[in-house]
What we know:
The complex is a heterodimer.
Chain A: H1 2-24, H2 28-34, H3 43-48, E1 54-59, H4 63-73, E2 78-84, H5 88-97, E3 102-104, H6 107-111, E4 118-121, H7 128-137, E5 141-144, H8 152-164, E6 169-171, H9 179-189, E7 196-204, H10 219-222, H11 233-249, E8 257-263, E9 276-282, E10 288-294, E11 302-308, E12 311-314, E13 319-322, H12 330-344, E14 364-365, H13 387-400, H14 407-427, E15 431-432
Parallel strand pairs in A: 1-2, 1-4, 2-3, 4-5, 5-6, 7-10
Antiparallel strand pairs in A: 7-11, 8-9, 8-15, 9-10, 11-12, 12-13, 13-14
Chain B: H1 8-36, H2 42-45, H3 47-77
Amino acid sequence: MTSKKQNKQSVDLSLRQFIKDLGGIAGGTALLASTPWLQSFTVDKLSELKKEKARLAVIGTGSRGQYHIHNMLDIEHLEIVALCDNYIPNLKDASVLCPKAKTYTDYKKLLESSEIDGVVIATPLNWHAPMVLDALDAGKHVFCEKAMALTMDECKAIYEAYQQTDRVLYFGLQQLFDEKYIKGIQMIHSGLLGDIVGMRCHWFRNHDWRRPVPSPELERKINWRLYWESSGGLMTELGSHQLEICNWAMGQRVPVSVSGMGDIVYWKDGREVYDSVNLVYRYANGVKINYESLISNKFNGMENQILGNRGTAELAQGLYYLEDDDASPAIQQLIAEIRDKVFSAIPAAGPSWRSETKGKYKPYAIVKNTAGVHSGASMIGADADGSDLILSSFAQACITGEKAKNIVEEAYVATILCLLGNQAMAEQKTIYFPEEYRIPYMKF
Amino acid sequence: MRNIIITPKRIKKELLILLVCLLIAIAVNIAAIISYQTSWWEILTQMGYEIAIALVLYFIFLIVRVLKFFILKIFSKK
């Protein structure tokens, strides 16, 4: 009991400390320009909540839903009042975690309840759009897992519904609340890396993405990630996070075109979605995102590299490197300079032919003691990746009714880019960003 | 079997050469510190590099002296 109490206090303090830390770093105004969704979450506003609690329901109580429940149980200013799932074993498991919550098997019945302020949706992708739209229609605040929706039309419908409502809408882009991403992007926007000249993102795992199925008729229900009718594959499940980070780094700029290839290379088990994707997203100024994902080799793990002419950030690892790093001792710099001159003097292999290795770059932590905490290996969620803080912020927004700036727009852009990537791979041609899906938020 | 006698004078001379090499290495490090504008503490913290450079210089001098010895020997025979 004591342990649980301490846990609750620590999460609450964590949110307060997080907000204080962000406010305290140099260039607070610049920080808010990089992260406008945090403007609603000042320490003063948090203290105004007093003892109020948001009454939330969780729709979809599978692995991700239960991960959210674990985080939610540690947040003081919310209570889980209802659970909903049409797969009974998952609903029972979730009920064990929060026995006081009322259970539903039909989300529409749940939305009729006046005792619910908001819903947390963690269902298969094809259910996102109908559930978000119905929940907003029912007057509920909504937190929905990423990606936004299965199709571009559904994304547009959600975006337009959000413009019409006074309800709060969040999407599960937890990196928006991850301190090392926030500070890393601020450093990029401040010019530490110079001009962004390219971006490289990858996510590698060695796992078939399958879950055990108790009977064959449940295959598409449980392994929904493997079929196009309910999933966007690697792009919506993994790529959406990384493309959002790229656009965040580029300051709301959005790629104008995408081309790529997708294949089922290894897991030929009846699935429809690719297990290997390689794409190139191109911005109007020529900067490109190289995106690669593979689930039959985990050697490279997960990374989001932002490449500038003066340095490189590895945001997932929470590190950055400088091109002209003068931190090495003088004698080592002198030896390196002599070595470079000796090698560059070889007539057949001038400076442009010399191999350049990463070895000479010294890593610096974006935030102390957080480097390397997220390898990307977890199927459900990583520790300290912002997932608890984004839920805490959502609960706060449910109480205050204050919408968070840009979260819906960021989710919209990232999801549309994922879906355009899937289209480019399916049609094997370059796809240009369609006019009909452009929104005022986007800069090209 | 021929006995090789290293005289105290020879030892003193070799140590002196090694000391000069070490001073040159430290001077190179000081020049690098001035040039790259880094911390003066590197005179101490980079002692390993300085010793390594001193040993390299010592062996270069050694090779030069051995060559000089053989060349003088050849000319003295003539």
